[in-house]
Amino acid sequence: MEAVYLSEKPDPNEKLRDVPHKPGVYLMKDRLNRVIYVGKARDLRKRLAQYFTPSRRLVADLKTRALLDSVWDFEIHTVRSEPEALLLEGKLIKEFRPKYNISFRDDKRFLLVKVNLADAIPRFQLTRIKKDDGCRYFGPFAHSGALRTTLRWMKKKWGLRSCRVFEPNELDYKRCMDYMIKNCSAPCIRKVSLEEYKARVLEACEFLEGQSQEFLKQIEQEMTAAAEKLQFERAAELRNVLEDLRRTTKPVRRFTRGSLPTTVNPEADLRMLSDALLLPGPPTVMECFDISNISTTHVVASMVSFRNGVPDKANYRRYRIRTVEGQDDFASMAEVVRRRYSRILLENRRAAPEIAEFSQENPNDAVHRTGQCSERFVRLPDLIIVDGGKGQLSAACKELQRLGLHEVPIIGLAKEFEEIYRPGRALPLQLPKDSGALQILQRIRDEAHRFANGYHQLLMKKRIAESVLDDCAGVSESRKQALLKRFGSVDRLRKASVEQIAEVEGIGEKLAEAIKGFLNR
Prior knowledge:
Elements: H1 12-16, E1 24-29, E2 35-41, H2 44-51, H3 56-59, H4 62-70, E3 73-78, H5 82-96, E4 111-115, E5 124-127, E6 136-141, H6 144-158, H7 177-180, H8 194-208, H9 213-228, H10 232-249, H11 266-277, E7 285-292, E8 300-307, E9 310-311, E10 317-320, H12 329-351, H13 353-356, H14 363-370, E11 383-387, H15 390-402, E12 410-414, E13 419-421, H16 436-466, H17 477-487, H18 490-495, H19 498-502, H20 509-520
Parallel strand pairs: 7-11, 11-12
Antiparallel strand pairs: 1-2, 1-3, 4-5, 4-6, 7-8, 8-9, 8-10, 12-13
């Protein structure tokens, strides 16, 4: 789909007559039909009318005047409530990255509530990322303050725990503060049975799902009774709690990527990118590399793949850097590029042995030349992108040359000024910020960054879990590694029997009993 060029600026007042007095989101577009601003409104008609009032330009700041000069058209999307408008606004800003928006352009997300019903004593937690981990999620919620108030009220209402389970030797002399002030039903010391506690958790889940009218009526009755007794401070407190509970439990549509209105055109962006980089054609397959070295403990890398301008998650890869000591982005980038494409070449030689057996030709070129392509053949990308400047690009180019992949296009994208570095070019290329070519590069670079950071966080959490064994008497570093190699994780080790633990080399029956008792505590 080609970009739409508007030759004459239309009169916005004609379109304003059809805008309803409803909450929703509006998208401002320029003459090339690109989204340059996303906003929300409680009343779309009134809000948009403010933009196109002639006197508005006289009192507007420089940014607003520049926006008004650039706006040629607008698009609206009505919703059912203001919280829905806030959620949709945040999603659309992350989708379009308009140049006149500041808020919501980062990777911060709205809050969710998470509970793992498989835990022995479940508890409700706040999170921003929904994972496929078997937990139950509620949200997202547009108002974080109201949500936190709701969770505090739920904890007091149903006696939900928010602390860790204490070890047996702590129970004789230590209680958590929630237990002391009667905010927790203390299932950890069996003040209530686990069955009764889980029934309370299920009631709390139903409350978060919107089955809350009975509880809200009770609070409203308490508020009225407190006001009749002239307890106005108590009544005001209940009024605020009631307002937050209603705001949290009000049904809200959840906007997913498939339900978002979108004008992003991957095909047009790829054509623009091909023209900007002087490629022989639009890069159908692109692969982007990013290094995450937040700490020297775990240096990891990610490789994400885009096919036809959209993520191809089946071909994402993640790597732990093996040969580099310390934080060295250049050497780390060289290692991951070498590992990625040497593996592809090896797999393709195995996929086409009849071509590669007696030929010095690159097996990828031979397969494309002869057309003898099997299902196992892995295609080389049309464009390789490395996150970084000249140093990262130079390291990646050297590895490609050693592998004989001289013809594969490669660029480096430096984040600070969004400069594009190309082999053999001294000066970087800078594309306009509203260019579709730059925006598709930003999307794949941001996705590689997200994927690398997610892997780094996963390894850090695993390391923290493994460090529990450091406090177990008699378990040296070599024994810890032997246990983790045998069982894979501390959770699996905790579920193993004493006999299974004792089978590990260097672990006797007595030490196995000590380890089992330590993990159970």
